[in-house]
Amino acid sequence: MIRGQKTTIRPIEEDDIEELYQWYNDPDVNLWASGAWPLNTLLNKDQIALKFLDGSPDIYRYSVLDENNLLIGTIGFKDINIPGQSAALYIVIGNKSYWGKGYGTDALIVFVRFLFNQWNFHRISLDTWDENIRAIKAYEKVGFKIEGRQREARFVLGNYHDAILMGLLRDEFLALHGK
């Protein structure tokens, strides 16, 4: 387990599946997590369990807990490039009562530090959609910079939106947040 000021990150456990099932089938959570509402696919509990417990060996998934060890979200990384020492990051705060209270930012800081120090990544990237301003601001607090956009790459609620591409280098993060 790795601990931040407000959050703890640990591997996903079987007991987490019920909560994950609720979040990943919630239109608000999906809208802000990926711009994917209406959902591309509605997942049942068995599919959620398969995705999070037995999923791809190339995607690393973890649970985000609050100060009382209550599950509030998930975080992870994928698209690992060993020669380039890079990966893509994702985070979802599924418990909506924790939105806008700094839990996502805290989880990102502690997890990004883990990725740079333990996995020895040089660069971490992520993407979101242009109207997800709350997420973009949280990413910028961590040190991510907007590196580009893919025009009309997301279809959200009947309209096309730009995908916002963001990146963070190890030296930038360490200068901002220390080891």
SSE arrangement:
Blueprint (H helix, E strand, L loop, with lengths): L1 E2 L4 E4 L5 H8 L2 H8 L10 H9 L6 E6 L5 E11 L4 E8 L9 H15 L5 E7 L3 H10 L2 E12 L2 E11 H8 L2
Parallel strand pairs: 5-6
Antiparallel strand pairs: 1-2, 2-3, 3-4, 4-5, 6-8, 7-8
Overall description:
With 179 residues, this protein is an alpha+beta fold. It has a domain at 2-126: Aminopeptidase, CATH 3.40.630. Helices cover 32% and strands 34% of the residues. The chain has helices spanning 17-24, 27-34, 45-53, 103-117, 133-142, 170-177; strands at residues 2-3, 8-11, 60-65, 71-81, 86-93, 123-129, 145-156, 159-169. Strands 1-2-3-4-5-6-8-7 form an eight-stranded mixed beta sheet, sandwiched between helices. A hairpin with a 2-residue loop joins β7 and β8 (159-169). This is Acetyltransferase, ribosomal protein N-acetylase. Keywords: Transferase. It comes from Desulfosporosinus youngiae DSM 17734.
How do the strands of the widest beta sheet line up side by side? 1-2-3-4-5-6-8-7
Order of helices and strands: EEHHHEEEHEHEEH
Q: Please identify the oligomeric state.
A: single chain
Rg, rounded, reads: 16 Å
Task: Using the coordinates above, name the CATH class of one domain.
Answer: Alpha Beta
Indicate the overall shape: globular
Total helical segments: 6
Measured by DSSP, the beta-strand proportion falls in 25-35%
Q: Major β-sheet, in short?
A: 8 strands, mixed
CATH topology of one domain: Aminopeptidase
Query: What is the arithmetic mean of pLDDT?
Result: 90
- Corresponding CATH superfamily of one domain: Gcn5-related N-acetyltransferase (GNAT)
Structural class: alpha+beta
For the record, the CATH architecture of one domain stands as 3-Layer(aba) Sandwich
Number of strands: 8
Low-confidence stretches: none
Task: Assign a percent range to the helix content.
Answer: 25-40%
Distance between the termini: 17 Å
